[in-house]
Specification:
Layout lengths: L1 H40 L3 H22 L4 H7 L1 H12 L4 H23 L2
Helix pairs in contact: 1-2, 1-5, 2-3, 4-5
Length: about 120
């Protein structure tokens, strides 16, 4: 009898996790692509190569250990929104873009929280 009651809860948790995970995956992938393109377009390739590498690393962590519900991956993924918000503090012209992506990552992390911390 309890399995029928807990099934909708499990589906709801799984849907939240999946939505949050997709948000994080998309943000990391798009920012990797963004910084890879900026490497060739703008005049500071070393800076954008570093950002592209960071975002690629975040993408790999989100795609593999994060999806496996490894807690360290959830904690370490918080670096992504912090690092994405940082350029906004130095350049007001790009602030809204980077803050929006960082906010989406925070939403994604909060949606996935139950998947990591339920018994």
């Amino acid at each position: 009898m309890t399995s029928t009651v807990s099934a909708p809860i499990a589906v709801e948790r799984d849907a939240r996790f999946r939505i949050g995970w997709i948000i994080l995956l998309a943000a990391a992938a798009l920012m990797t692509l963004n910084h890879a393109v900026l490497t060739f377009v703008l005049g500071e390739p070393v800076l954008f190569i570093g950002f592209a590498a960071f975002n690629l690393y975040a993408l790999v962590v989100i795609a593999i250990p994060f999806r496996r519900h490894e807690r360290w991956a959830w904690y370490s993924t918080w670096i992504l929104p912090v690092a994405l918000a940082a350029p906004g503090f130095t350049d007001p012209n790009i602030a809204i873009f980077y803050y929006a992506i960082a906010a989406a990552c925070v939403v994604g992390l909060l949606l996935t929280r139950r998947g990591f911390f339920t018994a």
